[in-house]
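Researcher: I'm preparing a figure for a lab meeting and need a structural model of a single chain. I don't have an experimental structure, so a prediction will have to do for now. The sequence is pasted below. Please return the structure as tokens so I can convert it later.
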Amino acid sequence: MGAITFIMGTSEMIVTGLLPQLSGALGVSVSSAGMLITVFAVGMMIGAPVMSLATLRLPRRNALIAALLVFAAGHVVGALSSGLGLAMVGRFAAALGNGTFWAVGAVIATAAAGPAASTRAMGVMVGGTTLANVVGVPLGTAAGQLSGWQTPFWMLAALAVVAAAVIVRQVPADRGGADSTLRAETTSLKHPRLWLVYLAIALIQGGVMAAYSYVAPLLTDRAGLAEAAVPLAMLGFGAGALAGTTLGGRRGDSKPYGTLIPATSATAAILAAITLWATNSVLAVVLVVLLGAAGFATNPVVVGEVVRVAGAGRALPMALATSAFQVGIALGSWLGGAALTSALSLQGPPLTGMVLALLALVPLGLLAASRRRAGTVTQS
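Model: Understood. Here is the structure written out token by token.
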């Protein structure tokens, strides 16, 4: 499962490193090409909850295979595109496949692990996405620079087909979610704390992605980094993200809000530093690495909070967590693109991200206070 999330995570972020090439090839501005990030996020937003319900009683194996084939088809359409419209259609289709995979895969992972280890199981899936930022996105960006932006799209399509073939041969048939009901899934959404977690996820992710969606032009046009060095900077971001995810996963079970609030505050501070001082290539790269570490330290913790509040093995709450991440990506990339075309220019995206990260401290503060009150009541 972690290997497939690596493919999915690479697809999700690959456009960030290819924006200059995509804007030139498709004949649009960089901010317009950034809509490919937004439309992917929208597809994930829709795909995860809708498909979690649509496949509730279907065999999980069949749903995974279908998700991978739709994902592959979307990348084929993207690779064949000569205009922004068709490219957006391809990205939307790929996102539907991605969202379906997460909706079904999360249930499989948590059910296989059992309630006691469900958070750890989700950590493996999240880890695949983080590894994609460390290895997949930089390699895909480099491949796109060397042999054309279509190359990583073709590679991802091929890998998805291979993964589907492996599932056909290796994963036994199942009878689907025979014990799941729509009422049980929707009942788990009645916890107010769950919606505060979703809001925090969207705002934190939006803060990171407002800046990271436009990291290539920020590094080349503002900081003066050579275009050929952008994949190395993205590798640094991925390494920081991997370190942050590991640290957050270790601390998050015992001190969830003692991890989330400092990490989110650090994210806001780093984005402020990028806004003010990222005019030197070395400093800019260091700040991008730190952004990956602080921004991704929250991911395993917020996923763990969703599991704790909603209960392990629930498809719809986990699907909505995926949607919350995608709301953040769509919101961040859209607002970052709008800021990029404003008078703020290249300072706009990180400044926008800083504001979103600061706003995330509001639901996190409410959640921390609620947790403290619950602890006090329990002790009394």
